Amino acid sequence: MPVITEIEDLKRIYKRRVPKMFYDYCESGSWTEQTFRENCTDFDQLYLRQRVAIDMTGRSTATQMIGQDVAMPVALAPVGMTGMQNADGEIKAAKAAEKFGVPYCLSTMSICSIEDVAENTSKPFWMQVYTLKDDDYMKRLFDRAKAAKCSAAVITVDLQMLGQRHKDLKNGLSAPPKLTPKSIANMATKVPWGLEMLQTKRRFFGNIVGHAKGVTDPSSLTTWTAQSFDQALDWDRIREFRKMWDGPLIIKGIIDPRDALEACNVGADAIVVSNHGGRQLDGALSSIRALAPIMDAVGDKIEVHLDSGVRSGQDVLKAVAMGAKGCWIGRAYIYGLGAMGEAGVTRALEVIHKELDVSMALCGRTDINTVDRDILMIPKGFSGDWEE
Fold first, then answer.
1. Contacts of 28 (CB under 8 A, 6+ apart)
2. Is 53 exposed, middle or buried (0-12, 13-18, 19+ CB in 10 A)?
3. CATH second-level architecture of 7-377?
4. Beta bridge partners of 155
C-alpha cells in the first residue's frame, strides 16, 4: 500500500487505474483551460500568517453548513458519472462522507440513483438538480429527493448550455459515453476497474433512465439530454423550482455579485461561488478571486460556500478566512475514489482534514469558527481592480 500524504498521491494512482475517457472527464476544463488552472493557482497567491507561542491544544474543525453539523467545513460536490470512476462510486463516496461527518451531494447525472444511495446510507444527503425544461421530471425528481429524506436541494444554474471541453469531444465522452475502438482498447488495460464494473448492475444513469418520460435506452437518453437543458432559464424559472422544494435550498454556480443578490431574492439558504470547476466559461475569474466581491455584496443575507480549485486543507482554510462557510470538493475526492474506492475517499478527507487542522493551528487558531482574514496576507488587487 503506497503512503498517501497529499491529494496528488491519490491523483497519480487514479490516473493509472481509471480509463482515460473518465480520467479526462474529471481532469479537464473548457476551451484553453485557463480558468481550470487558475482555480488552483490563485490560491497560491494568498499567504498565511504564522503565529507562535499560542496554546494549540483543544483544536476543533467542527462547524455547520446550512445549519447542519459537519466535522469540517467541507462537502463532497456533485460529480456526474461518479459511478464510472469506480463501480457504485456514488454509494461509496456517500458512505465515506457519512462516516467522516461531512455532507455528500448526489448529481442528477449520477450512475447510482437517489434510491440506491438512500438504501446504502443512514444519514441524509444532498441532491443536486439541473434547471431542466421537463417540469414533470423535475417535480418527480424533487419528490424522490423528499422521499429519500434528502436534507438539501442544490440547483446548478451555470449549465444552460455545455461549455466545450476538447478532451471529452475527442474521447467521445457524452451522456451516455460513445465507445470507440481506442477507448475500448484503453479500458481493456484497466483490468481491476473493469472487473469491478462487471460485478455491478449500476452502469447507466439511475436518476434518469426509467424516470424521465421516454428514456429507456442510450439513444433515447442522448435525445432527452440534448432537449432538456433550458437555455431560456431566468430567475422566475428558479422561483418555480423553489416552489417544488420546501427544504433547505442551495444555488450553485454563482460567480458575479449581481447574481449572488438575485439568489438571495429567490429564497435560497446558501449559494456556492463556483465556475463549474473551469468547465463552463473559460476566461472567467477563479472562484477564490470572485469570493470577496460576492461576500461584500451579500454580507450576512445568505450563507456563502465555495468550490472549484480546492485541493488541500490549506485551500479550505484560505476560503474560510475569506468568508466562506464551507468548501465543496469534487476532483479531490474523485481522485481518491478512482484510486482506492471508498477507502480512497476517506483518505482524501483525512488528508484535507489534517492539513486544515495543522495549518489552522500554526496560524494561531484552535477553532475553525474563529478563522478570519487576519490569518491571511492578501495581495493588493487580488479580487481585481477592473475598469468599469
1. 36, 165, 166, 167, 168, 279
2. exposed
3. Alpha-Beta Barrel (3.20)
4. 129, 251
Radius of gyration of the chain (CA): 20
Residue with cell 446550512: 66
For the annotated binding site for glyoxylate, the residues are: 25, 165, 276, 279
Residue-wise pLDDT for 121-139, tens only, equals 999 999 999 888 888 899 9
Catalytic residues: 276
Grid coordinates standing for 382?
487580488
pLDDT in tens, 273-303: 999 999 999 999 999 999 999 999 999 999 9
Closest CA to 356 of 338, 375, 330, 382: 375
261 closest CA partner among 324, 304, 322, 309: 304
Q: Are 62 and 102 in contact (CB under 8 A)?
A: no
Do residues 121 and 95 make contact, with C-beta atoms less than 8 angstroms apart?
yes
Whether residue 151 contacts residue 70, with contact meaning beta carbons closer than 8 Å, is answered with no
Q: Which amino acid is at 267?
A: G
Contact 104, 94 (CB under 8 A): yes
